[in-house]
Amino acid sequence: MLEELRVPRQRLLYVQASADWIQRAGLDVSDVVPALVAWSGPGGTLVMPSYPFFTTHQEYLESRPVYDVRRTPSMIGLLPEIFRRSRGVVRGLDPDFCVAAVGQEAEAIVGTAPAAPDPFGPDSSYQRMLGRGATLVGLGVSLNTSSFIHVIDSRAEACYPSPVYGERLFSTTVIDLAGRSQEVPRKALQPRFQQLTSPSTIVAEMKPADSLFATTEINGARFFKWDLDQWSSWCLAHAGERAAGGAWPCWLSRLSSHTE
């Protein structure tokens, strides 16, 4: 599958995966993490999301969460939790949109402190991945599965018709590897920016070359690859062009008819 999608080797790979849909495609879930680690190779880095919640971001922050980097499980699927527990994997201190990583640049990606207060801001793991030319790989997930779109929204927020984040700062508790506790302030993504976003529309608008984007489907399961370097450049330019006309970018077009 990785060969068919022309996923690069010895590079930084960010993988979002669904065990259920991978099995539906006839693939063995137990093979996924070892195959990805082998594919990224000694010169590459493998990263997966490791989020401790599955509600909206705002609902999660309203619960005043305590995030223990050592013990809090990943709540977004079997494969991210298997990866979190795998040998040599390190996990970020972000109390919400944390990632886990293994490989050459793993420590640099997860960082040494939480991004605050914007979880997708300049000091976030997601921004560090974009700065290193990451490739997004989707295994059995929708084309709308892309946390990187929130990095674009964070950067372009000042030009948008309305804010991406709510005004309130929430308090979270983060416990690090040494058991030390710290309070971390967080801005919350407005729920509609999670619920109404459609990154899949970028394919039709951008019309990317095969070298940048590739996708295939097996038994209803979607597999895809995005070159995030050119993807992010196009998204930022597109967001700016749309904002100049007072409109939302294509992936947020549903917000035009959304009432507060």
Sum this structure up briefly.
The protein is α/β, with parallel strands linked by helices. The protein has helices at residues 19-24, 32-40, 57-62, 78-84, 106-110, 125-131, 149-156, 191-195, 201-206, 228-244; strands at residues 12-17, 45-49, 66-68, 90-91, 99-103, 135-139, 165-175, 181-189, 213-218, 221-227. α7 runs parallel beside α10.
Defining traits:
alpha/beta; 7-stranded mixed beta sheet; 10 helices; 23% strand
Model description:
With 260 residues, the chain is α/β, with parallel strands linked by helices. The protein has one domain. The protein is 29% helix and 23% strand. The protein has ten helices and ten strands. The chain has helices at residues 19-24, 32-40, 57-62, 78-84, 106-110, 125-131, 149-156, 191-195, 201-206, 228-244; strands at residues 12-17, 45-49, 66-68, 90-91, 99-103, 135-139, 165-175, 181-189, 213-218, 221-227. The strands form two sheets. Strands 4-5-2-1-6-10-9 form a seven-stranded mixed beta sheet. The chain has a three-stranded mixed beta sheet with strand order 3-7-8. A hairpin with a 2-residue loop joins strand 9 (213-218) and strand 10. Helix 7 (149-156) packs parallel to helix 10 (228-244). The longest helix is centred in the last third of the chain and has 17 residues, at 228-244. The mean pLDDT is 95.
Lateral arrangement of strands in the main beta sheet: 4-5-2-1-6-10-9
In which range does the helix fraction lie? 25-40%
Number of strands: 10
Number of helices: 10
Main sheet properties: 7 strands, mixed
Low-confidence stretches: none
Distance between the termini: 43 Å
Give, in order, the helices and strands: EHHEHEHEEHHEHEEHHEEH
Structural class: alpha/beta
Give the number of domains.
1
Query: Can you tell me the overall shape?
Result: globular
Q: Radius of gyration, Cα only, in angstroms?
A: 18 Å
Percentage of residues in strands: 15-25%
pLDDT average, as an integer? 95
